[in-house]
Amino acid sequence: MAHAITAEQERVYGSLLLGRSVLLLGAAGTGKSEFIRHARKHLPGRVAVVAPTGMAAMNVGVGAVTIHSFFQIPPTASGYFQPELFAVKSRVAGLLKNVDYLIVDEVSMVRPDLFDLMESLARRARGKSEFFGGICLLLVGDFHQLPPVIRSEEREPFRANYGFPNAYFFDAKCLRNGELAVVRLTKVFRQRSEKFLDLLDRISRGDVDGALLRELNGRVLGTNSEPQGALIITPYREAAERKNEEELDALPGIVHEYVGQRSGTFLPVNGEELPSPERLLLKEGAAVLFTCNGPKGEWVNGSGGTVKRLARDHIVVQLTARRRTLAVGQHQWSHILPKGDEYVETGTYRQFPLRLGYALTVHRTQGKTCDEIILQRDRRFFAHGQLYVALSRARTIETVHLTQPLSPTDALTDRRVVDYYAGLAGAS
């Protein structure tokens, strides 16, 4: 739901107007995406918005594209990035010369070698020795959430070049001269309970003791007591896909198939990164999740519902939280890039803004607000930030449920991130 920007966000906006680059950090639910949309709309000049994944770009809204797409980094390019091996393509040079502000969402998922490559390309494209060639940056993220993906075979190059095999954006070489003002948002919009906020904060820092675990494990479901309409969140993709398929198969009636339509160059990645499935299979009675915000605020990205009727040009959905029934039409997502003083649509994707809503991976819930959740722990959480991301999708502890008790090892936290935040607190 949209809200007026806060006083601390207003100060960030003022810094951007003065040409100061800002690293904006905020816990889940602090309005980071809303502020990006505000800055994108109101900053004077040409603004480009990028994110590390197609899903993150779609969560931001119209005009956002992936980093690889904007900087024209080939999808085949993998491994450790060395900036000197990448030439500045003429199209990228044209884009970067005409950008005044660059917004990077989910920067906490950006690897330092990729960020150094972005900085090198911008500096060379603009022919200026300043940081990013003089482009003003707004970098937004939360390092307590999901980390950058660094494969095991890449760890040694990161250790050699950045000092750590588990390197983060803040290790980037181009940041060593302190080019960024760091601001932390404190007002949370998603959750209101101070007790639940304290619980989430402690989990994000790995400060988990027996009392906290007892409180969480008090949410374990009894036999046959799964709440209707609750979203199952699991760390494992195959578990989420299996649950969605099983539940759809168990429903009576025929399957309706809705095929999404792509035009131009829309997200040059596989269908898994599309905001809604390219082949959307539904039955009446199916649980669904919305994959964008409603045009008039009727729903938000992550709202749940139940399919009541399926037609060719609309789908009738009853919202879980408000019990309101809506006729939902197709949504169009656009792939937009700046060209001179204008933005040019280079591709579109049309599909109903829905996906099956029985289960999602932790990764796919990032950026979403969920009405009621069930954390499925038939196998343990295996990565830094997963438990925190999953729990923070809920608004209250009363809408959180567990299939099995949690243990201290589920609250995985990278000590480097905890120390980074402690350093920020010490410097303020």
Q: How is this structure best described in words?
A:
28% of the residues lie in helices and 22% in strands. The strands form five sheets. The protein has a six-stranded parallel beta sheet with strand order 3-2-4-5-1-6. A five-stranded antiparallel beta sheet has the order 14-13-12-11-17, with no helix packed on it. Strands 18-7-19-20 form a four-stranded parallel beta sheet. α5 packs across α6 (112-126). It is α/β, with parallel strands linked by helices. The protein has 13 helices and 20 strands.
Quick structural summary:
By secondary structure, the chain is α/β, with parallel strands linked by helices.
What is Rg?
A: 22 Å
Please estimate the helix content: 25-40%
Largest sheet descriptor: 6 strands, parallel
Low-pLDDT sequence parts: 268-272
Shape: globular
The side-by-side strand order for the widest beta sheet comes to: 3-2-4-5-1-6
Secondary structure class reads alpha/beta
| Beta-strand segment tally | 20
- Average residue-wise pLDDT: 88
Number of helices: 13
Distance between the termini: 31 Å
What share of the residues does DSSP label as strand, in percent? 15-25%
